[in-house]
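Priority: medium. Attachment 1 of 2:
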C-alpha cells in the first residue's frame, strides 16, 4: 500500500518539493531498490534469530521510514525515508515464512493465497485513496495515515505471533549485498537519467557498463560462496528459473502499469492522448485490478490443489499478457482501461 499510495501523487510531490520528474521517480525506485537488497539479508537474519523477531524489526523500520518521509522538506530527505521504508518490504517474505512455520501443511497454500490477496487489496486501496488524500490533506498524509495502522500492527506482531524456529548461525554475505546494491543502483540510475542526459551520453553508457561489470562480479562471487546471499546454484534449477522469470515479468508489468496508467488518464485530451481525469479520481481506474487480483488470490490455494501450480501459473501469465494487447490497440476510453486492468488483476492473482 505504501508504494501504491505514492505513485499517483508523484506529480503533486514533484510540484510541492520543487524537483524534477526524474528525481521524483526515485521516490518509487528507492523503495524498490531498498526492498530488493533488504529482503535476502533480513531473510537470512530471520533464519538465524527467528522470523517473528525480524518481522517486528522490519515493521519498525517501516514506521520510522513513514515519519522521515512525512517530515521531509526536500526530495533527498524523502528518498532517504523511502529507503528506510524499503526495509519493511522484507515483511512480505518473512510473512510467507511465518505462515509455513505456524500453519498446518494442508492449509499453507490457502493461507499464502490469502496473504497475497491482502497485498492486492492494500495495493489497490493505495491507488484509489492516494488522490483524495493528497488533494484534501496534502501528500505528507500519505505517510502519516499508514503510520496509524503500522504502529499497532507492529505491537500486535510482537505480542501475538509465536517465536519462529532458528537455524544455525552463518555469516552474512555483506560483499554480495554491496555488489547487489551497486549494480542495481547503477542500472536504475542510468535508465532513469537516460532520457535527460541522452542514451548515448558517456555518463549513461558508463553507468550501464559499471552495472554490467558489477553484475558479472556479483554472480561470480555468489557462485563461489559457501553461504551466498543469493544461491546461484539453486537459481540454475529449470523450474525455479522459470518461476523467477515469471515473477520478474509480473513485477515489471505491475510497476510499469501502476506508474504509467494513473498519470496517463490525468493527461488532458487536448494533447492528443489521455482522458483528462481529475487526480482525485485517477486511482479509481485500478479498482478492477484489485477486485480481480483479490478474488483469484483467495481461490489460489484451491485452484493450485485441483489443477496443479504449473497450469495455474501459465494461465495467470496468459491472462496478464492479454490486457497489454488490449491497451496497445485501444486506450481512448476509461471503460476499456478498467476492463484491461480487471483482466490483468485476475492474471496477477493467479501468479501470486
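Attachment 2 of 2:
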Amino acid at each position: 500500500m505504501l508504494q501504491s499510495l505514492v505513485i499517483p501523487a508523484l506529480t503533486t510531490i514533484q510540484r510541492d518539493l520543487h524537483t524534477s520528474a526524474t528525481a521524483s521517480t526515485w521516490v518509487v525506485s528507492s523503495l524498490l531498490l531498498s526492498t530488493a537488497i533488504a529482503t535476502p539479508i533480513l531473510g537470512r537474519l530471520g533464519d538465524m534469530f527467528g522470523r517473528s523477531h525480524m518481522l517486528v524489526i522490519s515493521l519498525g523500520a517501516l514506521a520510522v521510514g513513514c515519519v522521515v518521509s512525512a517530515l521531509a522538506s526536500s526530495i533527498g530527505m524523502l528518498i532517504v525515508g523511502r529507503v528506510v521504508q524499503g526495509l519493511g518490504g522484507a515483511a512480505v517474505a518473512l510473512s510467507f515464512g511465518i505462515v509455513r512455520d505456524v500453519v498446518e501443511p494442508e492449509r499453507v497454500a490457502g493461507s499464502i493465497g490469502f496473504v497475497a490477496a491482502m497485498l492486492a487489496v492494500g495495493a489497490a486501496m493505495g491507488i484509489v485513496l492516494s488522490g483524495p488524500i493528497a488533494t484534501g490533506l496534502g501528500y505528507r498524509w500519505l505517510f502519516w495515515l499508514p503510520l496509524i495502522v503500522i504502529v499497532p500492527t507492529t505491537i500486535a506482531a510482537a505480542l501475538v505471533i509465536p517465536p519462529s524456529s532458528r537455524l544455525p548461525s552463518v555469516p552474512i554475505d555483506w560483499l554480495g549485498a554491496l555488489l547487489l546494491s551497486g549494480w542495481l543502483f547503477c542500472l536504475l540510475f542510468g535508465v532513469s537519467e537516460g532520457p535527460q542526459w541522452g542514451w548515448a551520453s558517456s555518463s549513461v553508457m558508463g553507468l550501464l557498463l559499471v552495472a554490467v561489470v558489477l553484475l558479472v562480479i556479483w554472480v561470480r562471487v555468489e557462485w563461489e560462496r559457501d553461504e551466498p546471499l543469493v544461491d546461484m546454484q539453486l537459481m540454475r534449477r529449470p523450474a525455479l528459473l522459470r518461476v523467477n522469470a515469471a515473477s520478474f515479468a509480473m513485477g515489471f508489468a505491475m510497476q510499469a502499469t501502476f506508474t504509467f496508467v494513473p498519470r496517463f488518464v490525468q493527461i488532458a485530451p487536448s494533447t492528443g492522448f489521455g482522458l483528462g481525469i481529475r487526480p482525485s479520481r485517477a486511482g479509481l481506474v485500478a479498482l478492477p485490478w484489485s477486485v480481480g487480483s483479490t478474488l483469484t488470490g483467495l481461490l489460489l490455494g484451491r485452484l493450485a490443489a485441483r489443477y496443479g501450480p504449473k497450469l495455474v501459473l501459465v494461465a495467470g501469465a496468459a491472462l496478464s499478457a492479454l490486457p497489454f494487447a488490449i491497451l496497445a490497440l485501444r486506450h481512448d476510453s476509461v471503460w476499456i482501461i478498467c476492463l484491461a486492468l480487471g483482466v490483468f488483476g485476475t492474471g496477477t492473482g493467479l501468479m501470486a
